[in-house]
């Protein structure tokens, strides 16, 4: 038996986090039937669509989840009944989608595999709030313990893999974010500057204010963008949005993990202009075709120099990028096969 334990329903895919969950499920499913278990809180409505199943809802309030040294996110999602249900299973592999779920779990019978799409110690600090700083400080204690507890850790890039090893993780593999999206044709000469994100997330809202001050033909897309000038709100099908864009800007200056929307933009064949921090989100084969540092200057350069922009877009279309989750998960799949072979030999 195989299982994926997560905090969000993977289907339907409506954001980058869910896309990665679907990717993890695709990799696990290469080895056999995989149950998807979703940890939920009784005070927050979550629609869990088949084939995922919801665990017994945790009844802790936000205030109660904050108390203690364990992560508030895990404490708010995994109550005693859910923990007992997970513990009673006899999975050969339990893949946990986020490190913050692990401290609530009792020891599991099979291999414990933990995906680190973000390092919580960094992501929580990037929120800038008092709660974020508190949770980051707590993560500085519990997250290295999770890395050491796991049979196998999965990092989103080499930088996070190195950090997990520094924390004492036994075996670490990388699974970069992938984008299973169509490749767009060359951008229109009069295209706009596109930014896609969850604009209700605090750091992203601050970035939106920065972008609006750059005097660019800017289009914002994503949850919460409708509250800004040029915002289109959430859009189900992003293909026409990207096809009308001349260039994509990614303004993140801090956070954890890598931004899947950056991988999506370059996979669609659009030049990304991002910050020095955002470089890590650009897949290696795409980095020479993108621009870094000054967002306004980079975007204006791409708007003005259409031949250079199209040359860079062609390089992105030709680049050897992780365009499927199974392709991105090759290293993870091999490690899981090794774990199952070891267990079979015991």
Characterization of the model:
With 346 residues, the chain is of the alpha/beta class. It folds into 2 domains: 2-178 and 325-345, Rossmann fold (3-Layer(aba) Sandwich); 192-318, Rossmann fold. It has helices at 16-29, 62-66, 72-75, 80-87, 120-126, 130-149, 158-166, 202-212, 239-243, 260-267, 295-304, 306-318, 325-328, 330-345, and strands spanning 2-6, 34-38, 53-54, 93-96, 111-116, 152-155, 172-174, 192-196, 218-221, 245-250, 272-274, 291-292. Helix 5 (120-126) runs antiparallel to helix 6 (130-149). The model has no long low-confidence stretch (mean pLDDT 93).
Features:
Rossmann fold; 39% helix; single chain; alpha/beta; seven-stranded parallel beta sheet; 346 residues; 2 domains; five-stranded parallel beta sheet
């Amino acid at each position: 038996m195989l299982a994926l334990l997560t905090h969000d329903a993977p289907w339907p895919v409506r954001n980058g986090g869910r896309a990665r969950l679907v990717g993890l499920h695709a990799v696990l499913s290469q080895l056999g039937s995989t149950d998807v278990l979703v940890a939920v809180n009784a005070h927050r409505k979550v629609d869990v669509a088949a084939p995922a199943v919801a665990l017994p809802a945790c009844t802790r309030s936000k205030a109660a989840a904050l108390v203690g040294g364990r992560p508030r996110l895990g404490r708010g999602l995994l109550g005693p009944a859910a923990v007992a249900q997970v513990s009673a299973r006899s999975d050969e592999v339990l893949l946990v989608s986020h490190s913050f779920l692990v401290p609530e779990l009792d020891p599991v019978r099979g291999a414990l595999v933990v995906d680190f799409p973000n390092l919580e110690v960094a992501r929580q600090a990037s929120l800038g709030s008092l709660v974020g700083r508190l949770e980051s400080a707590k993560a500085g204690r519990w997250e290295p313990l999770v890395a050491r507890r796991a049979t196998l850790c999965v990092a989103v890039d080499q930088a996070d893999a190195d950090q997990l090893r520094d924390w004492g993780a036994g075996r670490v593999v990388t699974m970069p974010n992938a984008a299973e999206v169509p490749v767009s044709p060359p951008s229109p000469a009069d295209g706009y500057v596109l930014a896609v994100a969850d604009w209700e997330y605090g750091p992203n809202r601050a970035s939106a204010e920065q972008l609006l001050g750059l005097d660019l033909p800017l289009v914002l897309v994503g949850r919460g963008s409708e509250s800004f000038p040029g915002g289109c709100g959430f859009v189900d099908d992003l293909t026409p949005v990207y096809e009308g864009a001349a260039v994509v800007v990614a303004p993140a200056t801090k956070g954890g993990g890598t931004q899947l929307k950056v991988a999506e933009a370059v996979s669609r064949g659009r030049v990304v202009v991002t910050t020095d921090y955002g470089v890590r989100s650009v897949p290696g084969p795409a980095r020479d075709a993108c621009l870094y540092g000054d967002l306004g200057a980079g975007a204006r350069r791409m708007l003005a120099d259409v031949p250079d922009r199209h040359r860079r877009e062609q390089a992105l279309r030709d680049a050897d990028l992780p365009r499927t989750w199974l392709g991105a998960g090759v290293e993870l799949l091999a490690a899981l096969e090794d774990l199952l072979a070891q267990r079979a030999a015991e």
